[in-house]
Amino acid sequence: MSVIIPTYNECYGISSLIESVLGLEWGNMLHSVECEVIVVDDSSPDGTGELCCSLMGIYPALKVVIRECERGLATAIRRGIEESRGDILVIMDADMSHDPDIIPSLVEEAVNGVDIAIASRYIESGEMNSSRHLVWGSCVLNSFIRTLLRIPVKDVTGGFIALRRNLLDGLDLESIFKGYGDYCFVLLYQGCRKDWRMKEIGFAYHPRRKGMSKTGFFQTGFSYGLRALKLRMGWE
Fold it and tell me: 3, 67, 129, 217: which sits with the fewest CB atoms below 10 Å from its CB?
């Protein structure tokens, strides 16, 4: 299993996140599976990449890639996929908004036959702890995209997922993993066309406690909606 974490200026919390992921309790589920964490850093000015490199001596299962000439969340994830070895891939954010304690539940679903498991803010057991207008805006955006693209998942933009690696065979990863977090609903859309088995696991989303968000809601929402329209029209 490979956990892929793209980073940019996440120095304040990345050590704790790596420690939490590699210290997860798996029980007997993954007793014979090698777990690794792959951090892909876009040459963060705050030294995130260098800090992660210093942790490789402590955590043999940690691999760090520092990109010099390329930037972007989605392309960083694609690079992480290319560098990974696991049969199951987990993709998550580095800002502690994605609780690593949910990872075993996501992976268990993938091990037991679900093609892609999605950590969801919008099913009954999930929640989004943020300002009222951001919660409302996110709900509207997700509803619009999933209705437009006919994706049977309530949270199509969360980006906290576990999937079987072999599902990516034959997919054009370059066309999927571009832009920002819109890769998530593009991947799900492609999965729907291939009849992937999907399941949502509820989790509590918490906004970052430190650092600066890289997401401007209105600009991001517009670009997500535009990309969804292009997909629906067959222009992408």
Answer: 129
Cβ pair 138, 128 in contact under 8 A: yes
User: Is the pLDDT reported for residue 105 higher than 60?
Assistant: yes
Judge contact between 132 and 50, C-beta under 8 A.
no
Q: What pLDDT, on a 0 to 100 scale, did the predictor assign at position 213?
A: 55
Please count the other Cβ atoms lying within 10 Å of the Cβ belonging to residue 57: 8
Q: What is the pLDDT of residues 198-214, one digit of tens each?
A: 999 999 998 866 555 55
Model pTM score = 0.92
Calculate the CA 61 to chain-centre distance: 19
Contact (Cβ atoms closer than 8 angstroms) between residue 177 and residue 74: yes
Mean pLDDT, all residues of the chain: 91
Which helix (H) or strand (E) segment holds residue 40: the answer is: strand 36-41
Residue pointed to by tokens 């402590």 = 58
Q: 164 and 110 in contact (C-beta within 8 Å)?
A: yes
Given a cut of 70, whether residue 161 has pLDDT beyond it is yes
Q: Encoding tokens for residue 22? A: 């590699």
Tokens 């599902």 found at = 167
Taking the C-alpha atoms of 14, 17, 22 and 23 in order, what is their torsion angle to the nearest 10 degrees? 140
Instruction: Please tell me the distance from the alpha carbon of residue 198 to that of residue 221, in angstroms, as a whole number.
Output: 24
Q: For strand 204-205 and strand 127-128, is the pairing parallel, antiparallel, or unpaired?
A: parallel
Helices then strands, each counted (H, E), the chain: 8, 9
Distances (CA, A) of 19 to 52, 61, 231: 11, 11, 38
What are 34-58's pLDDT values in tens digits?
Answer: 789 999 999 999 999 999 999 999 9
